[in-house]
Model the fold of this input.
Amino acid sequence: MSQPPSLQDVASDTPGMRIVRRAAALLENLIAALVAAIFLLCFTLVVLRYLFGIGFAGAEELMRFLFVYSTALGASVAILRGEHIRIGVFVERLPPACLKAVDSLRHLLVVLFNAYLAWLSLGWIGQVGRFRSAVLDVPNWVVQISVPVGAVLVILFSLAVLVGGERPATRRDDAQEAQA
Done:
């Protein structure tokens, strides 16, 4: 079993790609912190509820907000790592030359979709962003801004992949799973 190539092995090592990889590493650390915060909040709520019969207002709402941000930011990192959602049953059977063209088309479609999503979400935030959350009394735009921010990051990372390459996702084949 060989190790998948690292990002440096696949992506071109230009100054721009080094910046993109550093930004992705920072985002990965931020996402890890958000997920850790979600876990700690959830664990604390369970302990408080079942051991002491108490809770604290806003924790569930805060966990939801953190989850929204981790998802929006995580989509962009997944693009760069080659782990974004895709169905490759037919595409992976194409010859290498066609596969590269289809991958480029895929990233261009992701860019177009996310540009449209960012555009629409700004109008949505303008309409309902002034309302406040139920418990924490936070303006809704604070959470909703994660949608266009995530979409813009997906666009930037998709363009970086088109220019410099991506790290393939670590995939376990059925044969490897059967041997394990």
In short: The helical segments are 7-10, 15-52, 59-81, 96-128, 140-144, 146-164, 174-179.
